[in-house]
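Give me the fold.
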Amino acid sequence: MTWLWHIADHLRQGGWVMVPLLGVSLVMWTIIIDRFLEFRRLGRRDLANADTVEALTATAAPTGNGLRTTLVNRLRTTRKGTTAADRALLHITAAELGRRVDGGLRLAEVLVAVAPLLGLLGTVLGMIETFEVISVFGTGNPRALASGISVAMITTQSGLLVAIPGLFAVGRLRRAAATQKLRLEETVVVLDRALGAEAKS
């Protein structure tokens, strides 16, 4: 329980800026953890690219949570029977799944950028408080001076502690999202060719 008191005291010393900074941290890490779990789920039990054409026309729907499997299953249920319509549905569905892959990452990137700015705001407020104390008491009240300096240092530190690991996590998620979207694009090319071949046969 001692560490809880330490955190509470840390938040109190940092002033009101710590409240939005804590909110930014919670939202950012909620998004990051959600995306990590989602990408982990998408990587399980997915169709091989070479099997997607066969799965599209098979009697039984393929099982799994991957993007390729999801794309094939959605196309199976929405096909119109005409090549142009089916190709359009393929690209629309792929675009929708691509947006799902990117879901939340832009917001997480914004929050990573906001965190150090909130820390900087706390620094400015702490320095203002320090100069106000100096203007009233001079430099003869070290405790009052320490309060303003504490606000300045703690908020800066907290903003960086939120932003730096978040920056690395979001960067890794961006790479994972790019990999997933590349896999999706490869599948779209294969299925688009297969639909075109169906029309010619």
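The chain has one domain: 20-200.
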